[in-house]
Amino acid sequence: MRMNGLLAIFAFATCLIASAEEPTDGKIVIRPKNGNAKSAPEVIPDKDGFLVIRPLRYGAPAVTMPTPRQLDSDNGKGSKPVKPATGANLNPVPISDPKPVPDGTAPKPAANAKGDAEKGKVILETWDVAYLKGLKIGYFHVIVREHEHDGKKYVYATKMFRMNVSRFGQPVEQWTEDATMETIEGTVLTVRMRYEVGKNQTLSITGKVDGRTLIVKGEGAAAAAESVPWPEGVLGVAKEATLFADRKPKPGESFEYSVYEGRLNQAIKTTVTAKAIETVALIQGEKPRKLLRLEAVMQELKDKQGRVVFKMPPGTIWCDPDTFQMVRMDQDMAALGGRITYMRTTKDVALRPATKLVEIFDAQSIVLARPVPNLHEAASAVYRITMESEADPESAIPQDGRQIIQNIDKAKKTFDLQVSAIRGIQKLPVAEKIPGPEYLSHSFFIDWQDDRVKAHAKAAVAGLPAGATPWQQAKAVETWVFKNMRGVEFSQAQASASEVAKTLNGDCTEFGVLAAGMCRALGISSRTVYGLVYATDRSGKAFLAYHMWYEVYAEGQWLALDGTRGQGSIGPGHIKITDTSWDNEKSLAPVLPLIRVLMAKPAVEIVKVNER
Questions:
Q1: Distance CA 41, CA 19 (A)
Q2: Rounded CA gap, 548 and 328, in Å?
């Protein structure tokens, strides 16, 4: 129900980041798949600035992007997208896999108190399919099993979301799983969340409820226990699945409930209002019937400093007015390119393969009106940014030594952002605040104490003279990462530094966490940055693509580097949205400011470029 949209948002956001590389002519290129080839670099055969997907220097041919019209017409063949449908005797679009993966291959839940959560009596099971642009993008599977232990009955419930889309023509699959152990009455005893962050790597946390506190532990570098506030009445997966049937809301009535969101590691409140019983046909060609329409509004999400960083759009839900079983839920997801629809269906329908995957390229870039030659080499640029859906749009972009906000127009939801190039150490009137220990910490994503990460860091600075400064070492790390990362894997969400150190493969998130980890291994404070980067496609059309790079603290100031470019600095073609240390982070909460910008669907105009 209300969490479905947030799960989809996180799955999309973690595969939206684009990896960009700087060819010899100085233009950003997002390059195509290279496999595992290790041959010498080759000349890029395409037009300068061609927006492709994976590195060309190891021999893969460039991939031509289909047009938006082709993407919306079944790979250019002209057929219309299939309309979503529901019900055992209907035939909605099959699951976009494209190779069917039985649900039994999904990650297994943790054993419960009896020792085997899989063997309990199934008391509830539901399947919901998610659609975007009329095409299936994934499914939700909820299963609740009853167990008995020491004469008491418990329920163990899991909620699995599996998503399949296309990114630049390559199939991308993401999955996430939530599980709760509850009493028969609905009191949550334990929680678990697992989320795919990279090939053969998951972010996994477990928690035990102790009064008004949830004691959460992760795995590996995230193993340290953490206390999370636990409001009264938080629902588990089982009780959330029967919420409407338990409440039986009448038109005009409202109620609130909270559930634990593991990807944010906090309990989140939603307000539901029953609007009216309407006679509607939710599916094209379906006979109209009476349904109860409800609206679900999730609370604003805030960072540790209490600042609002994200707000989900409201969801519209239709239920059977007699059984209160959900039939359909809609949410407008501007960041994903349209409205997501969730339909209650059958297992058979949920697991069928799709004939076409949704291409998410449009959702991961901002189209610009014109290209700007040599933007990355310029001294500064001024961007005019409009976020019509944001009440306070200028607060979505930070200000620092590179970025200054000007000309705020509250009525038009517009502001100007001046971004300057900082190529090296600056003479500051006052040194920036010395960073805390969190920027040198060993964490789940930046697990720099790994032997391979340390070895790569040592190799990166091996050629430097004795007494090399932290800034010189940080630039050597950037160069090493640029030269040694062999490829780009868009199927990954965000692998840890140790995992990247093993494979030397990934997209810009992997470039970023590895470089940040290598810097910490050398004693240099570092943090990763989410933002936007300027690029162009084959036709010369200009974009701002979502991207990750990193910053280091050297000689009293934070300075930016980008391992996908290897240029020793960044220019005005990079717009920063947020940064994070990832210290003791067991969730994806640091991604929320990026998701906020995604959801605002910003329009950007480059109004001025200063060459010097």
A1: 18
A2: 36
Tokens 């789940």, residue? 444
What SS3 class is residue 210?
Answer: strand
Residue with tokens 């509850």, as numbered in its chain: 182
The Cα 398–Cα 305 span in angstroms is: 14
Question: In the prediction, which pLDDT does 85 show?
Answer: 31
Q: Is the pLDDT of residue 130 over 70?
A: yes
Tokens representing 30 are 């997002």
Asked if 6 and 178 touch (Cβ cutoff 8 Å), the reply is: no
**DSSP symbol at 265:** T
Return the structure tokens found at 407. Answer: 């000309």
Q: Could you give the C-alpha distances from 361 to 15, 173, 542, in angstroms and in order?
A: 10, 15, 14
**What region does 71 belong to: left with phi over 0, alpha with psi -120 to 50, or beta?**
alpha
Token pair, residue 470, equals 């932290």
With bands split at pLDDT 50, 70 and 90, how would you rate the model's confidence at 82? Answer: very low
Q: Please give the structure tokens belonging to residue 215.
A: 């004691």
Cα(217)–Cα(379) distance, integer angstroms: 46
What is the SS3 string spanning 57-80? CCCCCCCCCCCHHHHCCCCCCCCC
Cα distance between residue 350 and residue 128, in whole Å? 7
Helices 508-521 and 470-484, packing angle to 10 deg: 140
Q: How many CB atoms lie within 10 A of CB 283?
A: 17
Q: What is the crossing angle of helices 451-460 and 508-521, to 10°?
A: 80
Distance CA 281, CA 151 (A): 47
